[in-house]
Amino acid sequence: MKPDYQLPIEEVQAKYQIKELEEGLNEKQVLNNREEYGRNRLQSQTTPKWKLLARQFNNMIIYILLFAAFLTLLMGHRSDAIIIFLVVIINALIGYYQEASASNALEKIKQLLSSEATVYREGMRIDIPTEELVVGDVVFLEAGDNVPADLRIIEADNLRIQESSLTGEADSVEKEIETIKASQTPLAERNNMAYASTSVTSGSGIGIVSAVGTQTEIGKISTEVSQTQTRKTPLMKEIDGLGKGITYVIMAVAVLLFILSIFLKTYSLSVLSLAVVTMIVGSIPEGLPATTSVVLAMGVNDMAKNKHTIVKTLPAVETLGSVDVVATDKTGTLTKNEMTIKDLILPTRHLDVTGDGYEPKGEVLDRKKQVVASDDLLRLFMEIGFEANDTFLVKEENKWTINGEPTDGSFLTLYYKQHDYPSVPDYEEIDMLPFDSDYRYIAKLVENPQQERFIFIKGSPDKLLPMAQAADPDFDLTYWSDHVTVLSKEGKRVVAVGYMKVPNDLEEITHDIFEEGITLVGLAGIIDPPQEEVIQALKEMKHAGVEVKMITGDHPLTAKAIGEQLGLADKIHVTTGAQLDEMNEAEFRQAVLDNQVFARTTPQNKTDIVKALQENGKVTAMTGDGVNDAPALKRADIGIAMGIKGTDVAKDSADMILTDDNFGTISVAIKEGRRIYDNIKKSILFLLPTSFAEGLIIAFTILLQRDMPLQPTQLLWINMVSAITIQFAFIFEPAEKNLMNRSPRKTGSHLLNGHDIWQMAYVSIIMALISLGSYEWLLDQGVSQAVASTMMINIVVLSKIFYLFNIRTTAPAFSKSFFTNPKAFWIIGIMIILQLILTYVPFMQTIFYTEDLSVLGWMISIVSGIVILLITEFDKYIRLKRKTTIPKK
User: Which residues contact residue 146 at a Cβ distance below 8 angstroms, ignoring those fewer than 6 apart?
Assistant: First the structure.
């Protein structure tokens, strides 16, 4: 069955059983159609809060900790069990907060539908709630209305509709009633259709409802958003894999030690069980989720305060650091979404206009870039453009905006680039002929101070050039047509400007009067200009190995011209949504790699392009501001919406919002994302060796068949307290040099390389051996087991403090980098104070089984930390030495 835009009006009326438009549907038809097609509303589902909370416990590390907590509770160690339970709850609450704070984009989409619609039913024109609309309803539209459902236009009187949120087109679209013959016409070119959530900017019309609810274009977007699964970020995948791997190894070792100890019959079953639980609790990096969340959260907070970026999900900020491709909408993202005159073609010269957007700031230059004085012809061009106009330019809170058509607004801005705002040309309006889609021009009858009357006209060159030729047999049609062609190929919209002298008693304009001909004054080349900061940002991204691809609903020529101005690539390759639809899967995946510009795309095209990039192994960011961008924003590894001009739907579907609408902020965010990734990796390299060391202490003790030196609560203290104090140092660690000279991380690359694993292994072994040796030596000196355990805790913690200086930077610890993070010293001070509280405060001694420590115990702990630092710094020195001696290719 053909879509409605391909059907003649008579067939559309017959399809929906409408005999007379002003009769509309009867009550029986309304009920039948509602039963068959459903109500005009969008469905949305929200995840219950209890499910969000329960989801946080579906984690391997959490399973192990819960098992350990129940086991210690059964064995009567209540304080140990309570502390383990608290650790689990803290981690779950952190995860719950992240998910619960995400907004519901579907609710915002529902709000886009207008609240009421004007329809014809049973011979009456009435207003009804939008939800009561059914397929087949006859809807009346006028300026200011939001389109309540998808409509086939049946009547149109100068009807223009703003569709930029769906199509990406900056200007309003003229609506017609003629049948469209092409079967694969892009949404942006279906000029006999109106779509739900768009708005009528001028004129009036009548349409028949062809789709309601989820079957509308906005409904399809809503469904797409609801069905699009949020992908885990690369970092979260790596950390999940790391956590599972560590857990499996620890559990395997625990089982082997348990079996071996039962065979050796050294411990009773209860003592052995507690020992194995202690080893598991010590080895499991339960601080890992909290540490990662804190580093991300502080990075997010810094970006919101200092970098005009709101990040809704914590992992999203890190994802930018690994992005390979930024797929971006054009209108309002790369461009201003403010139509601007850039070229003036006069009979003998081509002038350029500087300044972008609606702000009346700029100059008129000749081809030699010299400022042009305002002569009579140029002044007349500007006055005609100003007068033949039905739009207003206003300044609100230091921001210039228009009320009306963007193209008309560009002529107002041009006028005020050479005249003081809000002065107006010295003409009196007598009559006006509004823009009509059949005639494609707007005209105004005016009178000057000398009481001479003129008609000023502005419109499509294909309408005005024949008029000029009719008035002047010597009119150089070739000159003007060539300029129209050149400007059009540059992706510019071309508008012709002219006038005619009329009798002083003329009171009304008719279309017939233009048969006498007009005097053509010139042409204007208009474009939605790139944002100034985007070009520099694109250069920075290229340098960082990040490719940018433009996805837009605009015409291919316009999109290519903008791509060339932006410098997306040395040679711009363009394809269209229709061409993509005809490709097979392999061709499609190759096309998204080969092309930099995708024009005339649908919302589904955008989502498919993002998906194909991801299937090609690209970590993909998507930026946009319209409703049509929402599914792709949600599908991308990171969705980025514009905060000022972005629709609520786009902002709620995105992971990140740019509060200044500055695409250049993405480059800053990429650098910040890379810094955060580096610091998370450093925190993991810092956290794991000490966790492993704790597990090795217990494992060695079991193998040596000695009494347990540490309790589960003592191990949890080391892991959790240090995780939420000393690891804060990595939050404030500045970016390494040349961070933006690196290529993005490869998809599938491991978080830890071979040397990282080797360093973690030897550090954890040395730390465990020093701790056990010191513990045994103190026991031989006759001190109590509690004192020896207290010293062991301090050995591990002080070793972490000294090890911090090795991990903080890839440069030598004792260099300029030593002082680049002054907050690290404050954090170390806090950690030392906490250790003193643990060691000497009585109620802490009761909870954590500690006792007062002598000066000798502290000296042993400090020396142990120094040994760890010296060994790891020697390792770093060897690695740096090797790098500098490797010959360059």
Answer: 112, 113, 114, 197, 198, 199, 200
Single out the residue of 568, 573, 604 nearest to residue 590, CA to CA: 573
pTM over 0.85: no
Q: How many CB atoms within 10 Å of residue 884?
A: 6
Sequence-separated (6 or more) residues with CB below 8 Å from residue 230:
634
Q: What is the mean pLDDT of residues 862-866?
A: 94
Nearest 5°: phi and psi at 431? -155, 160
> Contact, 782 vs 714, CB < 8 A?
no
Cα–Cα distance, 64 to 42 (Å, whole number): 43
Region 194-219: mean pLDDT is 88
Which tokens hold the place of 262?
A: 């039962």
- Main-chain phi, psi angles of 523, to 5 degrees: -120, 150
**Residue type, position 593, single letter:** L
Q: How many helices (H) and strands (E) does the chain have?
A: 31, 25
Q: Are 319 and 638 in contact (CB under 8 A)?
A: yes
Residue pLDDT, tens place only, 709-718? 877 778 778 7
CB 838 within 8 A of CB 793: yes
pLDDT of residue 616: 92
- pLDDT one-digit tens code per residue, 716-752: 787 667 656 776 787 788 888 777 777 777 766 677 7
Residue 419 CB neighbours (<10 A): 17
> Would you list the DSSP string of 447-494?
E-TTS-EEEEEEE-HHHHHHHHHHH-TT--HHHHHHHHHHHHHTT-EE
Average pLDDT on 503-528 reads 94
Residues linked to residue 142 through DSSP beta bridges, in sequence order: 204
Active site residues: 329
Distance CA 304, CA 299 (A): 9
pLDDT at 30 over 90: yes
Band (389; pLDDT cuts 50, 70, 90): very high
